[in-house]
Amino acid sequence: MKIKAVLIFLLLAPLLHVYSQYMELGRVLQELQADLQWNPEMETGVLKLNGTAEHRLIFKIGSPWVLVNYKDIVETSGVIRRNGAVLFPKSTIGAIQAYFAARVAESDQPRIATILIDAGHGGKDSGAIGVHEDKEKSLKILEKDVVLTVALNLHRMLLKSYPAKEIILTRSDDTYLKLEERTSLANNVSLRKNEAIIFVSIHANAAFNKKAKGYEVWVLPQEYRRELIDPSGMEEKEIAPILNVLLEEEYSVESTKLAQEVLDGFDEQVGDLSPNRGIREESWFVVRNAKMPSILIELGYVTHFGEAFLLSQESYLQKLSLGIYTGIRNFVQTFENTKGFTE
User: Fold this and answer.
1) Strand (E) positions, 13-110?
2) Most CB contacts within 10 A, which of 37, 90, 114, 338?
């Protein structure tokens, strides 16, 4: 998107200087390397810029607007017909140029481009198991099933809210994945400059103490250090450790902010149904090996009688899904509005 927008911006720029007032349609097509779809009855044209469907400009003779990609309305001086010729006023070319210049500026802002959702366990690995029985009911609950339901719910919510972002699931069914396969999937996501990815691993807890209950979010200990930057491709390799420390600190701050937002989301959705056990630190494999802001969420204890029955209810899992979604949404909004927490 950014490359296309830059190219269109550069192609439009000379037109403002070469032509004083108007430019004929044929010349516009030539300069922009555009294809034209023309409806003579409606006097409406569609310009496919650079001969692709990446960007389309829709105009109508006499209308004071140009529609970009069928969604963005750009106010212009319109397109006119004079002595049989279709003419683009200089001011219309300028308005279109300003639109694409703004898109280029937006693409330079830090943004969360990818959100990876990791449903823990799966397949032959059931994760924690809770078995409960009383006089009225019995229950066997598997961690892998609980977390998959929440992950799928979360995936649908994020796709709906962020159609322009990549929302990835490590698994969408009862599939077994090794831990290194999960982090490898995240680490191999291709990102452009100023784009970021976050890693959210979803689990359910268990304990020998049957009274243990509540949700919590785990992050990597602040003092833990990884090799986030490969010095092999650097000319000045001696600065690699410094850059590595700075990046580690940045990821640590962002992971903690994301963890807190998720806990706040749980508080809002779950209320008094389950206690908030807070942010905890541990060098779990996935948060240790995902080279990005990453958190591991524990939804609750399958070994606690009351909480296990909550975790078996679709309505409660929907609350947990919405809590995580709210936390991610708030984190993304703050990240992008503060240029990556720099303002």
Assistant:
1) 22-24, 35-39, 44-48, 56-60, 65-68, 72-75, 80-82, 85-89
2) 114
